[in-house]
Fold each of these.
Amino acid sequence: MTDMTLRQWLLTDAPTSRRHARLASFYKGWLSLRSNSMAMFGLGILVVLVLAAALAPLLAPHDPFAQDLANRLQPLGSEGHILGTDSLGRDILSRLIYGARITLYIVALVALIAPAAGLLVGTVAGYAGGWVDIVMMRITDIFLAFPRLVLALAFVAALGAGIENAVLAISLTAWPPYARMARAETLTIRSSDYINAVRLQGAGPIRIITKHIWPLCISSLIVRVTLDMAGIILAAAGLGFLGLGAQPPSPEWGAMISEGRRFILDHWWVATVPGLAIFTVSLAFNLLGDGLRDVLDPKEGGQ
Amino acid sequence: MSALEISNLNVWFGDGPDRVDAVKGASFAVAQGESFGLVGESGSGKSTILRAMTGLAPTWSGDITVEGTSLTGAKRDKGFFRTVQMVFQDPYASLHPRHTVDQVLSETLQLHGINDIDTRVETLLEDVGLGRRFRFRYPHQLSGGQRQRVAIARALAGEPDILLLDEPTSALDVSVQAEILNLLTDLRAEHGLTYLMVSHDLAVIAHMCDRLAVMRHGEIIEIMDAATLRAGQPAHEYSQDLLGASTAP
Amino acid sequence: MSLLGVENLWVKFPTRQGVFDAVRGVSFSLGQERLGIVGESGSGKSMTGRAILRLIRNPGIVEADHINLEGKNLLDMSERAMRDVRGKQISMVMQDPKFSLNPVTTVGAQIIEAYRQHNRVSKAEAHKKALEMLEAVSIRDPERVMRAYPHEVSGGMGQRIMIAMMLIPDPKILIADEPTSALDVSVQRQVLNIMDGLVKERGMGLIFISHDLNLVSEFCDRVLIMYSGRIVEVCDADKLHEAKHPYTRGLLDSLPRLDQEETHLSVLNRDPAWSDTESVRG
């Protein structure tokens, strides 16, 4: 073992322990993701975003909430304010950096809630079949039939404005596509020989769904989630823009655009800069999602 | 006592005008320790009989008796799964693509309530001629023959008495087929297993089985000894045709 | 006269562990004969067939000194010229007809379309031709089959339809890659007999790729035996059972036999030297 480099150890065809097997397959996935330069570009942006959010107090040149009415609506590149200031004289760069925290918070919460709910509903419906399937899928259809933003609006209106409620509203409108996808995958997996085989060992439906069907659905869900991230960020921004998401003075990106809207003709950067931030992060998620699809797709597995 | 007795078995799929009768009035018995073959072309219903026994084809009528216990419907209890196990046709489709050999076997042992999983996994691998170095591999890191060995190890994990073999070698190369058939022969001798084997290949059935049934369009048309088949003396015309088609001139 | 000459053919796939050679320096020629290529999965037999038509998908690479079709090197041709070669001069029949026919169009429409692609004739004319072709592959009720969708015909029928379609442009060479492995034994022979008759009648060259030694020895004139990307032995098909190479012998011996009883089948012991010896010219 000693004359083996770490790389060889990770690329082995004959792993020696459970941990080794898992690490080796993880490393191979990482290698094929790394060979996709666009995906790595997306991943790079997201790493920068996470770092910015984590180190916001160190990175931000100003307090994001400090108003300075004498310095309001400064243009790009003005002294001390690289990205200018907004209508209350707050530094836009600092607000963007702190806003990354809110954006990540929303994205993370939605990414946890919506796919999990969709996965549960979809796999149970797909595996159980019969009337369980019919009832669950009709409920899914009802949610799907509503326009997303309108449904979110109704929820926020009922629950009150605020980030948590915005997240809940977005999650409630985002899960049905995942449920459909998980159900479709479950239908093909359900009749496969490896599921029959474990059924013949006496495994019950809960074990089959959680241990055998979920691992195969999750990879395509992850891909779908990363591709949907852009939409989620935009939906959160949209709610913020309508004043139903994050409340001022919170530096949520959508809310920042909303505030900048009033000056968009004379002071375009106030709305444009957070817009560009949303665009960049959405793009990053899309690129990463595309790359992950190549790595995680079980049909490509092993090659 | 017969290990396995099937009488007047009907299996169908669908309902009303779409109903397809896959098996019609099949009856046969397999003695303890015997190896029995089912031969026929695709669509003759030979695999469907196995599926009805294991509960994978839920709509059937007739009697299926396993070691004296009558089966009903599609539900099978733990005792059944400890007595009867199945090896599937395509080893590429019968192993979960995201589970290592170790996961497959440990889970099976756990489901059968067997303790001491670590040593049992290694013995099982040893039994099917795969060393311990295969233990943590994923299916895609194995060849077709190795995968089928894992599938056989999984079937043996619960120490069953009866093994249902659904074309266990038809997806494999001939040299690998020989290895797997030899393995099955040895395992039967070692563990005193009863085999019910399905195949379209008369030579494989003649090699593996003591007796066999020829099926066509869901019906058993003839039951004979392997010796009768070897001698080229099946009674039914269709069996003669099958035999003719599978022996090279 | 040689229809096809392949010289020093390599098929390479770059992988993370280095370059994997699926075919390693294979040379053979094909006349107006039936040439069988046998070997186990992974021996490179299918890759050889596909490489001739340059159908190896990325990132695979085909290299050869030449692949000459009647004096023209296929490797020098543009992709456009290759497309012309693929239907008109060399046709290929694949293993499973289900994947080769378009599921949403009737069989008849597909044959007529294929025919009209190669011949400028009216629809009615093409329809008549299509019926004739289906009759040529021994389909008894061609009118009904013309109206059927691919999922409504049996595997054997589907494969006969594929053969009919492949023969429309009157190719000089037919490459059949395991054309009957998805079929039942009784149908297998029927399909092969039809293919055999047509090939003989038209004086075509046939490359028959299969894992089934018995089938190949029965339906071919000459057989190449491939092992790990190389040809290890070439012999006349009717003398296949007297083959000398230990690999061929091993394959033959590992088959269970109806005429003799044995408790254990003989198992092939692979000698690493087999894959190192130079490829035999076929």
Amino acid sequence: MLEAILVMAISGAFFGGLLAYAARRFAVPVDERAEAIAAALPGANCGACGYPGCSGLAAAIAAGHAPADACPVGGPRVAAVVASILGVQVDTTRERQVARVSCGGGPRCQDRYVYQGIPDCRADAACPGQGHKACSWACLGLGTCVRACPFDAIFMGPDGLPVVDKEKCTGCGKCVAACPHNCIALVPVSARVHVLCRNRNPGPVVRKMCQVGCIACRACERVCPTGAIRVRDNCAEIDYALCTSCGACAQKCPVHTIVMEPEQEREVSAAAAS
Amino acid sequence: MKLAAILIGGILVNNFVLARFLGLCPFFGVSRQVETALGMSMAVVFVMTLASFITWLVQNLVLVPLHLEYLQTAAFILVIAALVQFVETVLRKTAPNLYTALGIYLPLITTNCAVLGVALLSVQQRYGLVEAVLNGMAGGVGWSLAILLFAGIRERLALSDIPPAMRGWPIAFISASLMAIAFFGFQGLFKEFFLR
């Protein structure tokens, strides 16, 4: 018994000493600014910046490969701290972006077949026809985006469409990358009017697939006071630089593709709390 | 003759990856490019050879005389973990590009069952020191052979027209199993050519 303890203890000490020697002999110089920057970053290691974790981004910023405001989660506050460490100025006029699901189909979009497989949108999208929905741009509703979010900001709504909690969303973009149909896009947080469709097929074709798909009738284009909404490639698109959130297009849309978020945004938070 | 048997056996007949199915994690993880596979295989050969040497010494000079054979697993893991950490530290300083390319798979050599496997197999076969070291080296070389061939295949697969559902891991696993079946042809090699 005693021999066992001694053997393990001595071996452990010997190898520990060897490693300590190696650590000193083969030491790699580390930039102190990288350590300070890493401490200033949120530490969520979400990878939204495109670097491997917060320490990866800190090293990149210290080396000059990434700008001081590269962390979308930290936002302007963290960018200011990082900039002060580096001793530079940073542009703080960019508006926060949040995710928005650009599909309003759900039960209103036809199913091509019943999908019984791995409950992941990416597996569904690998099936014939790019998924079980008749529309190849539709949200498949299996929750890949919900699982991709590191901040718990997106959850599955009652009709099989994901709902984004704007308060929690940091605009990291992980859900955008996770969706196999590219249903999710990042929009400015103040944007309140959205076109919930990305279908590029002509109107009659879309009507067969989905009750709320854009039919490219251009009614929205005609009523928009600023010309922010345009029908491109058989689908309406809003340019948020011009949009004033007046909601005229949402009122005019005959198939209710365009929606306007209500004044009381607590509707989203209430659904999130339930 | 026995040394030749160990060498041929470890590299071809009882290939650690394709016949014994050990060391699969880094095998699949680092085989996307031939360059990184080459770097990884050098690290694995080095670790397996040196680990065989040190673990033989530990087993026969420390554990057996003191009747502590039951500490074998713990002691071997201690040796292997320290060795891999040492390799990692040296590599980080001397070859930073290779270090970054290998990434997480370098410390994964520690939990790589091939390294512990070759050490335990040498003990099980009651090899002497030279035989044990040769076994370790042969295992490493066999592992390298397998991963280099596989990396070459995967580089070509990346440019081929594969059905969407099969891209990435599925086709990699299937290709590896086909390689394993092919290497099955080496069974009986030794008997045919060396024991005639």
